[in-house]
Design goal:
The structure is a single chain. 40% of the residues lie in helices and 19% in strands. The longest helix has 17 residues. It has a seven-stranded mixed β-sheet, with helices on both faces. Strands 2-3 form a two-stranded antiparallel sheet. It has a single domain, classed as Vaccinia Virus protein VP39 (Rossmann fold). It is built from nine helices and nine strands. Strand 6, helix 7 and strand 7 form a beta-alpha-beta unit. Helix 1 runs parallel beside helix 4. The protein is α/β, with parallel strands linked by helices.
């Protein structure tokens, strides 16, 4: 959907849940010298201003990064980004990857929305691969990449209820084409429970999948139907369970 812009939700509780885990996984994968590829299907603009019009309109960040001081790799990212862009800057997932990955690693980002794509290219610089194409088509077309060891983030808007099933099918197709990758899927938890069949399909197809869900109070903003945030990790690397446990502690660290 080309109507979705993530700036309204940047830094909120769901973002924080996702980014703490993502940063931890990237740090885990880069402990070894062997290079990795990071790929993302719905990258957004990569960098957000919490004092800007979109974030101010909803104020979702006040219930997320506004109440919490995370530790670990995501704190390192936040400090790096704010040192460069100011105290109101908030890193999207591409900025998390850029801050933690090494010169020998590869970053490949997909973003179809014209304005978000232009902002993403400006934020990432010339050294990062930014594609203006459908994320599902792009990741499958470029997989398996070189280096083959890596991490993919699948983070659609879920504005259509069909996206839950589409996301499960896409993730399983990607796992078959790129078996060396850990695949992290973010999804919203709504009162309607639309995520349930998607999660069960992933569990049935990938018995070792890690599911991590967190709930938070309803917020008077654009995401009023969201009651929580979920993450599913396929092909989890050794040590990933500890990343999720640490993320839960970080989210509660006030």
């Amino acid at each position: 959907m080309l109507s979705y812009q993530h700036g309204y939700h940047a830094g909120g509780p769901a973002d924080l849940h996702k980014h703490i885990v993502l940063a931890g996984l990237i740090a885990l994968l880069t402990r070894k010298a062997r290079p990795v590829t990071y790929m993302e299907s719905h990258a957004g603009r990569g960098l957000y201003d919490l004092s800007g019009e979109q974030a101010t309109k909803t104020g979702e960040w006040k219930a997320g990064i506004g109440t919490t001081t995370p530790d670990g790799p995501f704190r390192q990212v936040l400090d790096t980004v704010r040192a460069a862009h100011g105290a109101d800057a908030y890193p999207g997932s591409p900025s998390v990857a850029k801050a933690l990955l090494r010169p020998t690693d590869r970053i490949v980002l997909m973003e179809l929305h014209p304005a978000e794509h232009a902002a993403l290219k400006a934020a990432m610089g010339q050294e990062i691969e930014v594609h203006k194409r459908d994320g599902r088509e792009g990741l499958l077309a470029l997989s398996p990449p070189k280096p083959r060891r890596g991490l993919a983030l699948i983070d659609p808007s879920y504005e259509r209820k069909e996206e839950y099933g589409e996301t499960a099918a896409f993730a399983l197709d990607l796992a078959r084409k790129w078996p060396e990758a850990a695949i992290l899927i973010w999804y919203p938890i709504l009162a309607a429970g639309r995520h349930g069949p998607m999660v069960e399909r992933l569990r049935a197809a990938m018995p070792g999948v890690i599911i991590d869900e967190t709930t938070f109070p309803a917020h008077k903003g654009r995401a009023t139907g969201m009651t929580g945030s979920g993450l599913a990790l396929l092909n989890a690397p050794y040590g990933a369970n500890e990343i999720f446990r640490s993320a839960t502690s970080d989210e509660k660290n006030e």
